[in-house]
Amino acid sequence: MSNNLLAGKRGIIFGALNENSIAWKVAQQAVQQGAKITLTNAPIALRMGEMNKLAAECNAEIIAADVTSMDDLKNLFEKSMEILGGKIDFVLHSVGMSINVRKGIHYTESNYDNMHKGFDISAMSLHRVLQTAYKMDAISEWGSVLTLSYIAAQRVFPDYNDMADAKSLLESITRSFGYHYGKFRKVRVNSISQSPTYTTAGSGVKGFDGFYNYANKMSPLGNATADQCAEYCISMFSDYTRMVTMQNLFHDGGFSFTGVDAEIIEAMGSK
Ligand SMILES: NC(=O)c1ccc[n+]([C@@H]2O[C@H](COP(=O)([O-])OP(=O)(O)OC[C@H]3O[C@@H](n4cnc5c(N)ncnc54)[C@H](O)[C@@H]3O)[C@@H](O)[C@H]2O)c1
């Protein structure tokens, strides 16, 4: 499906680790829709080498950047504008990591160094990216910035751990910076709250299979896939969604507004 929705646009894609990554699919689809992109990830992720395949397929350069380093981010925007030949039209921030989740530390036992690091990588990094671009005036008028969130920002999913708090902060930064960037350059900033998806970050959450299956049952349309998420991202980068900003957009097959599913009620033994 190619309609050249992003023809002539320049983008930066954060977070494509391997072919399961949501960002991987977004990069592929953005290029199919006519965009030119650069790819970025943490230096340690680049060492795994997987991204080279994507870079070759997308004819894209890879620029290393740790999202917690302001110097790396400045370099990323400078190089991207140089390589792509002008200001940036869209940015995908598809980054998340919690050491407490990774180490299986219970929420009530959270280690605060881990929590701090997790918030910086998963939430404050969006502020860092936006502040870098804002100061450099690196994003074109009507540009579009997207980040990825999860419904644990609004409701409790116990095993999502401190990532839930990180996502709340991320959504708040989306609104707050969205206001300022909207006033400054009509740049829009939104988060997409995606269904559980089998990726490295997703399956790191304890009990992910149960999580996935439950959401799939509770969503009238079923869980949204990574490819479908990428399609939504493309529409949000396109000129068809220019008046949407500061929103948290659920892309979850209806999960967020379903109270209960009839099959689940039946399974609970109702007559
Ligand atoms: N998979 C799901 O179920 C799901 C659901 C809703 C939202 N999300 C969100 O989608 C986003 C993308 O995750 P994904 O599921 O594609 O998994 P993923 O593991 O493929 O992507 C996470 C990315 O974050 C990058 N990253 C981690 N630390 C970094 C750092 N310091 N600097 C730069 N990059 C860093 C990783 O290298 C990786 O590329 C995350 O924000 C995640 O929370 C995922």
CATH class: Alpha Beta
Number of helices: 11
How many domains make up the 3D coordinates? 1
Form type: globular
**Alpha-carbon distance between the two ends:** 46 Å
Give me the side-by-side strand order of the main sheet.
3-2-1-4-5-6-7
The overall pLDDT average reads: 96
| Ligands | nicotinamide-adenine-dinucleotide
Q: Helical residue percent?
A: 40-55%
* CATH fold topology: Rossmann fold
> Secondary-structure element sequence?
EHEHHEHEHHEHEHHHEH
Rg of Cα set: 18 Å
Structural class: alpha/beta
Uncertain regions spanning at least 5 consecutive residues? none
* Annotated CATH architecture: 3-Layer(aba) Sandwich
By DSSP, the count of extended strands is 7
Largest sheet: 7 strands, parallel
Strand content: 15-25%
Q: How would you describe the overall organization of this protein?
A:
This protein is an alpha/beta fold. It has one domain: NAD(P)-binding Rossmann-like Domain (Rossmann fold), CATH 3.40.50. Helices cover 45% and strands 16% of the residues. It contains eleven helices and seven strands. A seven-stranded parallel β-sheet has the order 3-2-1-4-5-6-7, with helices on both faces. Helix 1 packs across helix 10 (226-237). The chain is globular, with a radius of gyration of 18 Å. It starts with 9 loop residues before the first strand and ends with a helix. The model has no long low-confidence stretch (mean pLDDT 96). Residues 15, 17, 21-23, 41-42, 45, 66-68, 94-97, 121, 148-150, 194, 196-197, 199-202 line the site of nicotinamide-adenine-dinucleotide.
